[in-house]
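Quick one: structure tokens for this chain, please?
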Amino acid sequence: MNGVESGGRPRLTATPTVDYATAASLSQGVLAALLGRERTGKGDLVTTSLFDVAIAMQLLETSSRALYDYRTDWVQYAMIFKTSDGWITVLTLFRDNPLQLMCKAFNEDDMSADPLLATATLQRKHASKVQEKFGPVMERYTTDECVKRLSKTDILCAPVMDLDDTLKHPQTLQNDILREVEIPGHGTVQLVGNPVKLAGQGEDKPRPPSALGEFSREILSDFDYSESEIRDFQERGVIA
């Protein structure tokens, strides 16, 4: 939506973030309904939609527009630079003169002396000029060197990594988010675990995802379907 509103080309992401957010929202709704049933003894119908969640994910942007007639656009605070071995994202949030700090990090003359780049607002307005002037500096250093130098001057930054690099990142290993799971027909594979951890539950034990229809019989039995009805469903291909 940012690309459309700013007059630029619409941008897509390879990860279906709205799908994930919708699943999380629905889970929260189910938990709220269960809590309500405990208190009132009455069940509830929980619904949501991809469209509603997509709008709800932009509640900050919607509120700032409604209350202050201000369009929040986080993309304007980000610049992506090429390094000698990759790419780095630099965020200019909460800094009065981020370009000056960037120059300090690399022992460069203060490029914000240029009247067109004197303040953070002007630097965002003339982002292409910042890229033109500062881009060659970044390309002289590795991504790791750039991150270390910028961090020392309190500039928010992060390397741009592909998925393989991310899965091997020390923070990924430290957080213990990956799990070795034995899956029939595939051997042992590495999958992403649950990002929510409960300290009182101990370490979670990974298990393979259920096969299609694996628990259909048990579920239907719980809903009082007879064995003959379940067999009929299977014969007609209604369930696996």
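The chain has four domains: 2-68, 74-160, 162-198, 210-240.
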